[in-house]
Specification:
This protein is of the alpha+beta class. About 20% of the residues lie in helices and about 35% in strands. The strands form 4 sheets. It has a 6-stranded antiparallel beta barrel. It has a 6-stranded antiparallel β-barrel with strand order 7-8-9-12-11-10. Strands 14, 15, 16, 17, 18 and 19 form a 6-stranded antiparallel β-sheet that branches. The longest helix is centred in the first third of the chain and has 24 residues. It starts with a helix and ends in a 5-residue tail after the last strand. About 5% of the residues have low confidence.
């Protein structure tokens, strides 16, 4: 037994000497092998990005009153009605929650329009826990952007703003917010796609090209910032796809959000130009398949453009002579490849000012001039 124990000690000593001479040969002091690295080197770029913008992310709590009748008055016994009187309406409070981001030192907060839609009270909690009363400066349902002003004389921490036009698919995307009321939540992903048409997601009443990301955006994240690897805001989180395709998040590009917020700050609202047409995308392949059908009612031009599917009666397009089956190929001298590219040009137009189109009708190119109206139905 003593011999075996002695052999074990010799083997252990050999192992230690091998490790000792190995560390000497590569220029490392024996004690340094057990020293820890500088703690600052252990943090990822995500932690640094969050430091840049985290103090500007806020939680938004809302409240609105709903009028609700306690019970059906027709079911009240006449004798009880004499005793109790006519039943009235009792107020009921509905609470909501979202996120936002401070964009200037005077307390202006960007968030989603659906977060503060028709609310009576807005309370904003800053990253340091301070609570402030919020006043809705204005909101735009079409782009889902709202601007909230914080009451108080404090100087607030504004987020660094990036340029969403510089984004490329595959760039890092970091979503911040307060999902489910859990403050200072951060998720990481990439930019999965750019210029995602919101109409393709089933929102026909919106005009938006969205940033698509796989960074988790959960209920309560709405209105919070989507930031790049440098901690600059590149988008405003707006929705997450549920059901088929779940796990896809979408954000409003910050360049559009800034443009809308500037109009809200000055006017309190945003007026969107309106032509009054329903459009579908057309290309040569779709047109050829259609034209081969012997039952088709019209021959479509075999090229790309925005095909007029319907014209709203008494709309600017109707008054200018646009018809069903016309193919819009140019708008203000810009080639039109699909309905979204036409809508982008419409958004840049002015109310009541001529908006020039070039269309194809029965194989002939025709020029039309339309004077856009304000988009109806917004209040």
């Amino acid at each position: 037994m003593q011999l075996i124990e002695a052999q074990r000690k010799i083997i252990s000593l050999q192992k230690f000497l091998c490790l000792f001479f190995l560390t000497i040969s590569i220029g490392i002091q024996p004690l340094d092998a057990f020293q820890t690295f500088d703690s600052s080197q252990e943090h990822s770029f995500v932690a640094e990005a969050v430091k840049n913008v985290g103090s500007s992310v806020v939680r938004i709590d809302t409240e609105r009153k709903l009028e609700r009748q306690d019970f059906d008055p027709t079911l009240l016994d006449p004798l009880l009605r004499e005793l109790l009187g006519e039943p009235g309406l009792s107020p009921e409070k509905e609470r909501g929650q979202g996120s936002g981001v401070l964009i200037d030192e005077n307390g202006l907060v960007l968030t989603n329009a659906h977060v503060v839609e028709r609310v009576d009270e807005v309370s904003v909690t800053l990253a340091n826990g301070q609570e402030c009363e919020g006043i809705v400066v204005g909101s735009d349902e079409v782009t889902d952007i709202a601007l909230v002003r914080l009451n108080g004389s404090s100087t607030f921490s504004a987020a660094p703003i990036g340029n969403s036009e510089d984004l490329e698919v595959g760039d890092w995307a970091i979503a911040l917010g307060t999902p489910y009321g859990l403050e200072r939540t951060v998720t990481l992903g990439i930019v999965s796609s750019l210029h995602r048409d919101i109409n393709s997601l089933g929102f026909s009443d919106k005009r938006l090209d969205l940033i698509q990301t796989d960074a988790a955006i959960n209920p309560g994240n709405s209105g919070g910032p989507l930031v790049n690897a440098s901690g600059q805001v590149i988008g405003i989180n707006t929705l997450v796809r549920s059901g088929p395709g779940a796990g896809l998040g979408f954000a409003i590009p910050i360049n559009l959000a800034k443009k809308i917020s500037e109009q809200l700050l000055i006017e309190g609202k945003v007026v969107h130009p309106y032509l009054g047409v329903q459009l579908v995308s057309l290309n040569a392949r779709i047109a050829k398949e259609h034209n081969r059908d012997p039952n088709s009612l019209m021959v479509l031009p075999e090229r790309t453009g925005a095909l007029v599917q319907a014209v709203i009666p008494d709309s600017p397009a109707d008054r200018a002579g646009l018809r069903r089956g016309d193919l819009v190929i140019y708008a203000e001298g810009i080639q039109i490849d699909n309905p979204q590219s036409l809508l982008e040009q419409v958004e840049e137009s002015e109310i009541g000012r001529p908006f020039d189109l070039k269309i194809l009708r029965n194989s002939q190119e025709i020029k039309l001039s339309i004077k856009p109206d304000p988009l109806p139905g917004l209040g």
